[in-house]
Design goal:
3-stranded antiparallel beta sheet, 33% helix, alpha+beta, 362 residues, 11 helices
């Protein structure tokens, strides 16, 4: 139990202060290898693959993810949009987009196309992109298929609507691939995507992310309704950063369902069960009455944004000028901003570590 697997490494082969562990009860998870302060980068993950969301594809460049002023549409498939001709040309090489054009066109003629919503279409487009990746690299497919997924029976029990959506997506992709891929394999790919992808969001009131990413390393991090970490982005690279001070050996957790962090424990557990197929056992959901009370008090005092009541309060980088302008005092106070509405706050002291060990089970 707790077998060490590896350290995280980034583009420059720098070692980050976290490691992947494994146990029979929890599967793979992340822990801190040393005591860290709030705002520390604990893990770095390069993108394995990503796709612009169907709702955003005319607004966000498929290649560089910049906002599109004058869209350059791929005339071959009519399904991908770019901010410039150079990005379009880059995509044809870097993403092998040219070889996907016919399949993306064919997707819109699939018999199950009318059953797909925008999220489903995004997943189907992502599968077409992945299939093209794997044509050139068996090792990339092996990495992807090591990700956690939930079989068809589990999905049908926890969320029949998602089970039907997965069937429709798999049928559409099988049609595109001329039935050269088994339906069950395609459904396992759908499950791997929905269970492990990270959404990149822009705007507090956005109904859907601008893009969905698969980040292999970051997929090991578990959920807690009392998280000690949050997700940040550096271009297309995903960073796991500490919300609060973290002890050596403590498990790192983020909140999967950050859009409604103040909902009741019953509502949160039901939502997580339906979408991610696990029972949340964090201290806000499943501890003793005293533990739940302490956890709720900690969440309200240190983590929840008082303004929008949706976002989490993340540490702002040290900025003496900003501190003095905002506070009229010397730097050194705890300066934070909301992950959702971006309102800034300060306190004379920063938050302590999360009061109880995190006990989330995947």
């Amino acid at each position: 139990d707790g077998l060490e697997q590896s350290y995280f490494r980034g583009l420059d082969e720098m070692t980050w202060p976290s490691r992947v562990c494994n146990s029979d009860s929890k599967g793979r998870y992340l822990v801190a290898v040393e005591e860290v302060a709030a705002g520390t980068v604990l893990a770095f993950s390069e993108p394995f693959s990503y796709i612009v969301h169907e709702n955003a594809k005319k607004l966000i460049c498929r290649a560089c993810l910049s906002d599109i002023d004058r869209p350059e549409r791929c005339t071959r498939c009519g399904q991908e949009y770019y901010c410039s001709q150079s990005c379009l040309e880059e995509s044809r090489v870097a993403f092998r987009h040219s070889s996907q054009c016919a399949k993306l066109r064919q997707l819109t003629t699939a018999p199950s196309w009318r059953c797909l919503d925008s999220d489903d279409i995004t997943i189907a487009r992502h599968i077409i992109h992945l299939r093209e990746m794997f044509e050139f690299s068996d090792s990339e497919r092996e990495k992807f298929e090591m990700l956690c997924f939930h079989d068809d029976d589990v999905t049908k029990r926890t969320d029949p609507l998602n089970a039907q959506a997965a069937q429709s997506i798999a049928e559409a992709c099988a049609y595109v691939f001329n039935d050269t891929m088994d339906i069950q394999v395609l459904k396992s790919w759908v499950s791997r995507l929905t269970s492990n992808q990270f959404g990149m969001w822009r705007g507090q009131s956005a109904a859907s992310p601008i893009a969905d990413f698969i980040q292999l390393n970051a997929s090991y991090i578990n959920h807690s309704c009392l998280p000690n970490c949050y997700v940040d982005w550096d271009d297309k690279n995903l960073l796991i950063k500490s919300l609060v001070p973290i002890r050596e050996g403590e498990e790192l957790c983020i909140s999967y369902e950050f859009s409604e962090p103040r909902s009741s424990a019953v509502a949160r557990r039901l939502q997580l069960k339906e979408k991610y197929h696990f029972d949340c056992c964090c201290q806000r959901c499943f501890g003793s009455s005293k533990q739940r009370e302490e956890a709720e008090e900690y969440f309200e005092l240190w983590l929840c944004c008082p303004n929008c009541r949706r976002g989490l309060l993340k540490p702002d980088p040290p900025d003496a000028d900003a501190n003095e302008k905002l506070l009229g005092t010397s730097p050194g106070v705890d300066l934070r901003s909301c992950t959702s509405c971006h309102t800034r706050y300060f306190r004379e002291e920063g938050p302590p570590p999360v009061p109880l060990p995190i006990t989330t089970k995947p």
